[in-house]
Amino acid sequence: MSKALTKEQIQLKKIRRLKDKNLEQLLLYRFLNHYGYDKGTITAKAIISDIIKLIDNYYLVSTLDDDQHHVNHGQLVYMAVPVDEFPKRGKSIAQTRLKPVVLSFITDADIEHIAHGFDSKSLRKKRLTRWIDETFDQGALLTQLDISMLLGVCDAVVSGYVNEIQNEGKLLPTRGNIHDLSGAITHKREIITLYLDGYLTPEIAMKTKHSKEAVDRYIRDYHRVEILWKHGITNTDQISQMIRLSKKVVMQYVDLLPDKTRKSISKNKNKTLDFSTKSITFKPSGEEEVSSAEEQLTKE
Known about the structure:
By secondary structure, the chain is mainly α. The protein has helices spanning about 5-20, 25-35, 40-60, 110, 120-135, 145-150, 155-165, 175-180, 185-195, 200-210, 210-230, 235-245, 245-255, 260-265, 290-300, and strands at about 60, 70, 75-80, 100-105, 140, 280, 290. It folds into 2 domains: about 50-180, no CATH class; about 185-300, no CATH class. Helix 10 (about 200-210) packs across helix 11 (about 210-230). The protein is elongated.
């Protein structure tokens, strides 16, 4: 009677079974059982490795913009929205340009993850992060709905995973974050916090994986809210009308104002200003260039 396997040995057997389900093993089986090859397993593996390299160099999936990627074992091609395909009101996904990206659907790291027991939640979060980063590196963006389909869970579960990951300090370049589609303010908070800490636009863009134009837009909008608030205009409906941002977005920027600013209301309460043609602009370096609207406020 054979000795019972330990829990660790059982897990290792599972890992080997999963790892052996690949093209290399299929070819090795064919070499040893169908092709009449009799030079041994080691030599057969060396030949197969060379064949796989030749296949990798021959078969390519060519994405848009001539960005080429191999599709290897465990990978898949998925359609995503390019980073520079910005949303517009009433613009459906059928009217949106798409770009094929290659995702590592299953990796050795995923298989190793089950070595000490199968923790589905942490595995999903790891894969979610990998897919979002891989897509962004190829110049495109995934939505939480995309991730829910890839993971096979509802989008509410994905939203919870994303919030947990971002609360741990990693900003995910999802389409909701980069194109400002979601109600989350994590990306705004990250950008404005870095700006208030003295970082310039190029550094903030690199750290948060946003374009320089997007960073400058967030900073500009933040300052427009800040200026009005400092001069006693604290009605969010009024601010929304004056600077042409939704009330929801205005409230997000108000939440990002320092406590000292939010609690101190100037004597110029209920002052109204027209920001439709005057605004704060920024130089490419990230330094502020104050418009006449702010100069007028400062002098008063």
